[in-house]
Write a structure and sequence with these properties.
The complex is a heterodimer of chains A (about 325) and B (about 350). With about 325 residues, chain A is an alpha/beta fold. Helix content of chain A is about 30%, strand content about 20%. Chain A is globular, with a radius of gyration of 18 Å. The termini of chain A are far apart. Chain B is an alpha+beta fold. Chain B is elongated and about 90 Å long. The chains are: A alpha/beta (about 325), B alpha+beta (about 350).
């Protein structure tokens, strides 16, 4: 359903020819997000597509899988951390702290985790993925504070987890990218754990709908402006788009980006988040942060996860993978 | 992506998945995705490595089941692998490296891939241009030319058109024609006009069996050499089949030999200053009277008389005398053959 609160839809670049054919079946499986479709979407992301075997998190026995219950933010419930470490054990290993995606409203600690399995196997990294509370049942600041609580626990228990607390990078895709950016801002401002990198994969950063790209998809593409509005409104309620939104919830609102960790950003040229990512990359650079920015022509939101075999997806995946390998080797 | 397209678990026993497979390849064709994109989709949807081989061009691809480019060492399918011909061409094959039990949609996916490859072929102008060159090249082997004719969807008998546009490269609309050796080359079904040749072009044509493309191309060029421009009272379109003895003269007369004829040299020298010379000589040599020649040229007859006097002074003979008429027509023929094409 087109929303009436937004101005007309500006022009969007075409989708890559190899990616475009996937959009129709994608819409068929995941129609627009709203209160009615939300329960089914949550089942789909948590249980996986019916009939498909779940991802083998042990990678055939090379990875040790643990679930830890650790304290949440003060006064809030405990949170669960999914910890993946090399089966052979870890000592002073680099750590990928993962905040999953799903528009702030769906997904769980396993969502998108398969991206990092090779780094556990090949680079000996430890992956910690946090199960945060979801909106709209748990609006801001619950999600970002849960993510931050998980990070501080991880850093404080580095020895126990076999990780080097000076080599923790944070990564997330989509809403998870927004949460990772928000956690990085919190860590900076509260003097929390030092992060080595933030790897923000097509991140959801801005609740305001003032950029061109945030309005250019209405019923098209993977995560259109209606989905995005539902996600942000679930997180922020009446506050969405007002002055009463913190930069930890919507990092695009942060005016001071100095002192943030080295940043990797990627985004498709044909997605809702394009302009907020380009703007964040520009302002981080202007604040003196080292930034790697990749915009992939014709990519829709999450294109390289949905259509990994496409030429542009292979390029995107290889580029991100190479960055992670370098970051973990540093 | 496989999860989205091929969902066999669902209640519809695979019918919906089959429709999604068909829609997927249709969509890849309509978005002009590449050959690689088709092969990657096939590998991903079947969950199986894919091979592709085109004997004629020597192209071979091998795509692993995750869509990654694999080494193309395996250049032909094993006997037990499922294989499909592209465009019913036994030298153009796509196959799955599937030795175990077949996936439920293997046949459909492979067939759709082959069809999409064939449709893409006809949709892609650069490939068509390449095939056209092969068809008309006397150095390409006969069987390769037959493949090219099939890929261009040509019937057994064709018309080869060779053309020179009045101003090639400007004002052309529609698909840009293929240019070979500076000439526009078009091949159509026999007897058909060629679309894509700009209006006002000089055109030579020749009909032939498709496999004899190189000879037909040479003949069409011969016809083209004998065309000229309307202002010179020359024909702008000629069929090789109508040339008769003119073809024999043209085939034995190089530009250089024609240009070395003394009459041709005098005509060329005169035409350099007076571009009307060729048309005027032709009118004088072919019309019964000066008055009729003047009417043909849309000139006042006194103007034509002045021009005739100038021509006669330079040549030393009259194009309108009994001996001069055949000499003028032959000299004009040689002058035309002395003009380079393109």
């Amino acid at each position: 359903m087109p929303t009436t609160s937004m101005p007309p839809t500006p022009i969007a670049p075409p989708f890559d020819a190899e990616l475009a054919p996937v959009l129709a079946p994608l819409r068929e499986m995941m129609p627009g997000f709203n209160a009615d479709t939300l329960p089914a979407m949550r089942r789909l992301t948590s249980d996986g597509i019916p009939g498909l075997p779940p991802v083998d998190l042990t990678a055939g026995g090379a990875i040790r899988v643990q679930e830890l219950t650790v304290p949440g933010p003060a006064g809030d419930p405990d949170i669960t951390l999914l910890v993946l470490s090399p089966a052979a054990g870890a000592t002073n290993a680099p750590c990928i702290y993962h905040t999953h995606g799903g528009g702030m409203i769906i997904g769980d600690r396993r969502t998108g985790i398969d991206l990092f399995l090779p780094h556990v196997v090949d680079s000996g990294a430890v992956v910690v993925s946090v199960e945060y509370r979801l909106a709209p049942e748990h609006p801001d600041p619950a999600p970002v504070e849960d993510c931050y609580a998980g990070l501080t626990w991880t850093a404080e228990h580095a020895d126990e987890l076999g990780i080097d607390p000076s080599r923790i990078l944070i990564s997330g895709a989509s809403a998870g990218g927004g949460l990772a950016a928000g956690v990085a801002l919190l860590a900076r401002d509260r003097g929390g754990p030092a992060l080595s990198h933030q790897v923000l994969i097509c991140p959801m950063l801005d609740d305001r709908f003032t950029t061109h790209s945030s309005r250019m998809h209405d019923g098209t593409g993977g995560w259109d402006r209606n989905d995005n509005e539902f996600g942000w409104t679930s997180l922020l309620g009446e506050r969405r788009g007002t002055d009463d939104v913190s930069p930890y919830a919507a990092p695009a609102r942060a005016t001071d980006l100095a002192g943030l960790p080295r940043t990797f950003l990627d985004v498709g040229s044909a997605e809702t988040f394009r302009d907020e990512v380009l703007d964040y990359a520009t302002r981080l650079s202007q604040a003196g942060v080292v930034v790697d920015l990749h915009m992939w022509g014709g990519g829709f939101h999450g294109f390289d996860m949905m259509v990994p075999q496409a030429a542009v997806s292979q390029a995107s995946l290889a580029t991100r993978d190479a960055f992670l390998r370098r970051a973990l080797a540093d | 992506m496989r999860d989205l397209i091929v969902r066999l678990d669902v209640i519809d026993d695979g019918a919906a998945s089959a429709l999604r497979v068909i829609a997927h390849f249709d969509s890849l064709v309509s978005t002009h995705a590449s050959v690689g994109a088709l092969l990657r989709a096939t590998a991903t949807l079947t969950g199986c490595a894919v091979g592709y081989q085109d004997v004629a061009t020597g192209r071979a691809r091998r795509i692993a089941e995750d869509g990654a480019e694999a080494s193309a060492e395996i250049r032909s399918p094993r006997d037990d692998w499922p294989v499909a011909q592209v465009d019913e061409d036994p030298d153009r094959l796509v196959w799955l490296e599937r030795s175990g039990p077949a996936g439920p949609l293997d046949d459909l996916i492979l067939e759709r891939c082959a069809q999409a490859l064939a449709r893409m072929q006809t949709a892609r102008a650069p490939l068509a241009a390449g095939e056209l060159r092969v068809l008309l090249d006397d150095e390409s082997p006969l069987d390769r030319r037959a493949v090219a004719a099939r890929r261009l969807h040509l019937p057994a008998t064709v018309t080869v058109h060779a053309a020179i546009a009045p101003d090639l490269g400007t004002g052309a609309s529609g698909p840009f024609p293929t240019v070979i050796d500076g000439l526009i080359a078009v091949v159509t079904a026999a007897g058909q006009d060629a679309s894509g040749i700009p209006a006002g072009s000089r055109v030579g044509t020749c009909e032939a069996a498709a496999a004899h493309g190189p000879q037909a191309w040479a003949n069409a060029r011969t016809a083209l050499r004998l065309t000229g421009i309307g202002g010179n009272l020359e024909p702008t379109r000629l069929r090789y089949e109508d040339l008769g003895a003119l073809a024999t003269v043209a085939q034995h007369m190089t530009e250089k030999a024609a240009a070395s004829d003394p009459d041709v040299m005098r005509i060329a020298a005169l035409a350099a200053d007076h571009p009307w010379v060729v048309g005027t000589m032709r009118a004088l040599a072919t019309q019964p009277s000066v008055r009729q020649a003047a009417a043909l040229l849309h000139l006042h007859h006194s103007t034509l008389q002045e021009r005739e006097a100038l021509v006669e002074r330079h040549l030393g003979w009259s194009p309108r005398s009994a001996a001069g008429r055949p000499r003028a027509i032959t000299a004009l023929l040689l002058w035309r053959l002395s003009q380079p094409l393109g």
